[in-house]
Amino acid sequence: MKAETFVSKLSEININNFYGVPDSLMSSLSKHLASNNSRKINHKILHNEGGAVGVAIGKYVSNAEISAVYMQNSGFGNIINPITSLTNKDVFSIPILYVIGWRGSPDIKDEPQHKMQGRITLELLKLLEINFLVLESDEDLDLKLIKNNLLNKKSFALVVKKSFFDHDPTEFPKNENELLRQDVMQKLYRAYSDNTLFVSTTGKTSRELYEISKSDNFRKSFFTIGGMGHSSSISLGIAESNQDKQIVCFDGDGSLLMHMGAISIIGASPVTNFHYILLNNYSHESVGGQPTVANKIKFKEFSYANNFNSYLSIETQSDLTNYIKNIKSYCDKKMFIEIDIEMYSDKNLPRPDLKPSQYISKFNN
Questions:
Q1: Same domain for 115 and 191?
Q2: Over the stretch 195-219, which tens digit does the pLDDT of each residue have?
Q3: Is residue 170 part of a domain?
Q4: Strand locations in 202-281, DSSP E?
Q5: Handedness of CA 108, 113, 116, 122 (dihedral sign)
């Protein structure tokens, strides 16, 4: 089904508010919503899925409008709390339509980080007492069933399989940044001392660092292949446990926004062997290029407000070269480094050829 048709059909049952976090499986939906100029459709990309539920709650208690919250099933962890403590029948009985991309469904081959979540997706919905439909073809969309549940103040879920949405070739406008993420990471990986440990965020960033790290047999790199938004906290745990080493966190703007409070905790911690590197392309590039709000945030002021010792902005090859030239002088500071990068990744970028259990055993050894 075309995403435009899907949104139009939901509008027939008065679902015109869409809040969520883009994902790869439903990229067509979030692309359509992000580029839609209809005054009838109200759409916001949120920092995380729980936040999307929060906005939907606010909308309903204000004017009884029911909203759709879209997400990948990996975002379940972020919505369980507001569901179990706010929207369910024992509390406020606030109906929400969840549109969930089903990564790791048992009948398809998927990446390791999606397998468990895929196995338990339907069981989680049952446990949360949310009725659902699995969408695999156009005929599976039952508007009457959805409407009846929502009108009875029961949340409902549409579990979307990979084959449901038609491909959308839409490409969002590129930013004007000149630096490429993989090139930046490769140069920094070589520039830091051999006594450095690297942590990368989800998506293309970890896949690129995986390729870069092969030359060292993965001993210096931890790949946060799942759990979007948690690479900074993982880096803090590694920094506290390895105070004789330099820790470098390669994070993305979408990931930072998802759990931004972690930066405050890092800033308040006593570690000084920590470099937080924000690879900022103002987009969810790994899943389609949908925009974030990261180009509107003053990260210099943000970093100092969160007790980082130093902030550095890198926008050009010259900036990067100068940083690398003086890198040793920065390694005794807790630094926030913002690197503006192009919205680009290699379409032929390989996926990891080892199991997570194989390369995690090599880390820090």
A1: no
A2: 999 999 999 999 999 999 999 999 9
A3: no
A4: 221-223, 246-252, 274-280
A5: negative
